[in-house]
Design goal:
Layout (H helix, E strand, L loop, with lengths): L20 E2 L12 H15 L13 H15 L8 E4 L2 H12 L5 E4 L5 H8 L4 E4 L2 E2 L2 E2 L1 H13 L6 E4 L13 H14 L2 E5 L24 E6 L11 E4 L2 H8 L2 H6 L4 H12 L2 H27 L13 E5 L6 H10 L2 E2 L1 E2 L12 E5 L5 H26 L1
Helix pairs in contact: 1-9, 2-9, 5-6, 10-12, 11-12
Pfam family, one: Aminotran_1_2
GO molecular function: DNA binding; pyridoxal phosphate binding; transaminase activity
Protein name: DNA-binding transcriptional MocR family regulator
């Protein structure tokens, strides 16, 4: 199917140029999406729920999906959240937008992990806040030092309502925060009153062992808001996700004017998802995608080890990304034009920091391409790297 409608207007956000192996986008391969099973669930949902599937939905989300989410979260992460702690959203980005609208005021200071998901910066900045990086090291957030940062900022008269992070199979690093640091971070949040916004969108994409417990599962009510999404596990075009939080926050979201006016978010799709889960399609598709992504990860890792032996990286145990540290003085932003001229692309590490840093790193995504194309992309990147180094040497002599 064409990526454009008959009138020439685009159908989708991303168009991969046929001559480029674009490793910059965290997107699934459209051919891997569950078209037949989703069609079956959509028809089944309409038959099961009748006209109620196309009516205004319940504010928090339809009961069948909320019930399934509660059961599954309890089974996979411990401590099933009851219905009053779940709010269905139009994806994790929408959930972050809602949380920011509810908790942030213009002029606030919001902490963000360093590095972390770059488009979250945009969502938060839309609310007129100042973004400040957390204290961190190569293994992630330093809870004690971050707590000291919160206290210092507040002594300066700044309001610091929340901290955003992706602690499990993070974007861009693919790493997970160690269990000890998770415990310390939750304790710091509870002590300081800082709300942790845990973007947990990659949790289900674990390839080697189960994901570590979420921050939410370890916290008292109110300390953590957890964002979940079906974009990575089923399909991004569904625009469907959820958040789990204290009942007071869920109630506040349900009382917002746009919910009162329009009812629950993405109601018909939410009921289709409930049917997709009831039929067992969610579990089957998730297992297929884990197998697929594990193979793609392994292919990318093998290619990097073969063709770029001087770069440093940690093999991600889940998620979609490989985070490379370039050798010596080589910088990702300077290398990018050479890479794109050689038919491969990536995201420089500077995208993932709110300060002017990170240019020694780059992010490769393995979600979109088959193993042979991932290997070809790395071969092209290695060639581009050799050219960039040769040019730099020539210019310095």
């Amino acid at each position: 199917m064409s990526a454009r409608a008959s009138n020439g207007l685009p159908l989708v956000q991303f168009h991969s140029a046929p001559e480029t192996v674009d490793l910059s986008w965290g997107h699934p391969d459209p051919a891997s999406l569950p078209l037949t099973e989703w069609a079956e669930a959509s028809v089944g949902g309409l038959r099961r729920y009748g006209g109620a599937a196309l009516a205004y939905g319940y504010a928090n989300g339809p009961g069948p999906l909320v019930e399934w989410l509660s059961e599954r979260l309890g089974r996979t992460d411990g401590g099933a959240p009851d219905a009053g702690r779940i709010f269905v959203t139009a994806g994790a980005s929408h959930a972050l937008e809602l949380v920011a609208a509810l908790l942030c005021r213009r002029g606030d200071t919001v902490l963000v992990d360093a590095p972390t998901y770059h488009l979250a910066f945009r969502v938060l900045a839309d609310h007129g806040v100042t973004l400040v990086p957390t204290a961190s090291d190569p293994d992630g957030i330093l809870p004690e030092a971050t707590g000291e940062l919160v206290e210092r900022l507040r002594r300066e008269g700044r309001r610091v309502p929340l901290l955003y992070l992706v602690p499990t199979f993070g974007n861009p690093t693919g790493r997970s925060l160690a269990r000890a640091r998770r415990t310390e971070l939750v304790a710091m949040a509870e002590r300081t009153g800082l709300v942790l916004v845990e973007d947990d969108t990659y949790r289900e994409l674990a390839y080697d062992a189960p994901a570590p417990p979420s921050l939410y599962s370890q916290a008292e009510d109110g300390a953590v808001i957890r964002l979940g999404s079906f974009s990575k596990t089923v399909a991004p075009g569904l625009r469907l996700g959820w958040l789990t939080a204290a009942p007071t926050l869920v109630t506040a979201l349900a009382r917002r004017g746009y919910v009162d006016s329009g009812g629950g978010v993405n109601h018909a799709t939410a009921l289709s998802m409930a049917e997709f889960a009831r039929l067992g399609s969610y579990e089957r598709h998730l297992e297929r995608m884990r197998t697929r992504y594990r193979g793609q990860r392994d292919a990318l890792v093998a290619a990097v080890r073969q063709h770029l032996p001087e770069v440093e990286f940690t093999v991600p145990a889940g998620g979609w990304f490989l985070w490379l540290r370039l050798p010596g003085p080589l910088r990702a932003s300077a290398l990018l034009p050479y890479a794109e001229a050689n038919g491969v692309s990536y995201l420089p590490g500077t995208h993932f920091f709110v300060t002017a840093t990170g240019d020694a790193y780059l992010r490769l995504s393995f979600s979109l391409f088959a193993p042979d194309l991932l290997a070809e992309g790395v071969r092209r990147l290695a060639t581009a790297t050799a050219v960039a180094v040769a040019v730099a040497v020539a210019e310095s002599t």
